Amino acid sequence: MQIELSSKARPLNQYPLYWAECFGTAPMLPMSRAEMDLLGWDSCDIIIVTGDAYVDHPSFGMAIIGRLLEAQGYRVGIIAQPDWHSADAFKQLGQPNLFFGVTAGNMDSMINRYTADRKIRSDDAYSPDDVGGKRPDRCSIVYSQRCREAYGDTPIVIGGIEASLRRIAHYDYWQDKVRRSILADARADILLYGNAERALVELASRLANGNAIEDITDIRGTAFFIKDLPADWTVIDSTNVDKPGRVEQPLSPYVIIDETVCTTSADNDQAASTEIRLEGKLARVQQKLEQRLKTVVRLPSFNDVKRDPVLYAHASRVLHLETNPGNARALVQNQGGQKIWFNPPPIPLTTEEMDYVFGFDYARVPHPAYGNARIPAYEMIRFSVNIMRGCFGGCTFCSITEHEGRIIQNRSQGSILREIEAMRDKVPGFTGVVSDLGGPTANMYRIACKSKAIETACRRPSCVYPGICENLNTDHSSLIELYRGARALKGVKKVLISSGLRYDLAVESPAYIEELVTHHVGGYLKIAPEHTEHGPLSKMMKPGMGSYDRFKALFEKFSRKAGKEQYLIPYFIAAHPGTTDEDMMNLALWLKGNGFRADQVQNFYPSPMATATAMYHSGKNPLKRVRRNSEAVKTAKGDKQRRLHKAFLRYHDPANWPMLREALKTMGREDLIGGAKTQLVPLHQPRDGEAYRSPRRKNSYRGNSGELRKGRLLTQHTGLPPRK
């Protein structure tokens, strides 16, 4: 078996067009045979099966991928939310000539279906009329199996965020166990992880040229089964990835891994001791990119990480070390007798390629098959524009970096402004208000490392923790220019910023905060301190409250200067790994002292593959060296303690007072029970039937998204990326 990787990437728009490009562009990608007939198609080249309703908008993955493949000349059909109880619905467009592309949609199907308390949701924002139950649990697995039943000889390609976050052996919160790679359970031929445009175009081109899918092994951002390790590759064990040595400032949260960290079973297919001793020699040459491109890191096997939480934490740590496309090595993991090979992450898209992807003639509306049905996720983003991808924040509870990477991929200002004009001219109901210019974050647009060489060599998981890296360019001038250009467009009355703001980065540019506060805040602005206490913040890789205080001071200063009454909405997470009962008590005291009353809150949600999820499962901290006796991470796991942590965030709710009184007594803090301003909960419950009413300012507001008390609004926060 031969695997040859490259550090260079072929531009997306420089592939020869497939012969079917003569059919032109479809108004909407077809979802039925009748639509195919109108287009003059006798078959589809590629069929995308998705767990979301089909919306032809660039915030929906199936639309981007479908339009990209269409631009390459392929005939692309969509099977959206099919009845999965038999293979019949998967035959409705016939057999695809090249492959089935399977995705759960814009969210992991389990997160979409269940709350953080493992309760079934009654709604689904990605389904017509917000109806739940339109997709199965573990959507990608079920859809892939039905595709195999429908046409057994057609290649199956899985991708999207569910596939990305479940590509290795991963802890599954809903079953409370470690599951093997989704590729094994789905019985698919290949898995594409991350934003997979580059991998998908290359794969489609190879298949169109007659290559067998099992022979396509050199595409970055892919995972597939192998029988034997390639003979011409250097194989090193994951316990030898880092050797002890001098640590440069600023200190990276990923300190050295000790090579004696793990004991493993025979199933792990470990290298012989003679091979491991070669590590010292390899360490001298691995800094050369050519060598790294021929080196594979062997992770502990599925059986090992399943039986041993410490090994799970170690594997998670190593995976996150190998995420920079400039220096990441391939990984391999034994999955109970089968080996899955993971190529390094894809090369990020250039600005020209981002413009190409977002510049297709999207209809920007749901497919007509849905009639007048309302799709909430579409309603939320139909007047918003995505300006960038990626996040270098590295928050341990978040899935953005694992999926999109930490190198920011930007669109040009011209491309963004053209999309606003298209939205103005094409989208029904546009009133002149752009609801958001953003993406994974509001203010990382065109921010990057000052040196490409440093960026390529860097192995830090975050550019802003424990402090902002001295090599990071924090200039917000391009974003300010973009905002001004958007405001100047004809027909645009207001441009709001709704994406999450990285406020510790924003304080480096007071001019940006002034521009934002003066023109782009609609009364309140959401930011996410997540917590007030060092313990949980250090496990989240989030800044302390000093950054929040500095941003708050600038926000209020520029609001006064603009003559506006505007407020911050801080989000907080309950029960995050590293959070004690005392931490939640102190957060509640901070909330009360600052006049905040949360309307809706949610506990930490252990999403697959996140670093915080590894902490939750293993009780270890993979941000530091993982040993048997290394730092233990306390985590609220039982329902009672998780409810308590959630109750602290809603200290003002009488329903929570009995639980809080009991907890405060247990903690020896009965001094916080009483009616004084400095006390947290009253001594007595309201009488039966007596409604609780708190003092309200005259200008307070109550709306669907939350409640304003003393000029402050707190709304629901899931600890997950926004549903987009």
Summarize the structure.
This protein has 724 residues and is α/β, with parallel strands linked by helices. 31% of the residues lie in helices and 12% in strands. It contains 26 helices and 23 strands.
Could you characterize what this model shows?
With 724 residues, the protein is of the alpha/beta class. The chain has 4 domains: 1-221, Response regulator (Rossmann fold); 225-345, no CATH class; 383-517, Transcription Regulator spoIIAA, CATH 3.30.750.210; 521-724, no CATH class. It has 26 helices and 23 strands. The strands form 7 sheets. Strands 2-1-3-4-7-8-12-11-10-9 form a 10-stranded mixed β-sheet, sandwiched between helices. Strands 21-22-23 form a 3-stranded antiparallel β-sheet, with no helix packed on it. Strands 5-6 form a two-stranded antiparallel ribbon. Strand 5 and strand 6 (177-179) form a beta hairpin. Helix 12 packs antiparallel against helix 24 (611-618) and helix 23 (581-593) runs parallel beside helix 25 (639-649). Mean pLDDT is 88; it is low at 242-287 and 694-724.
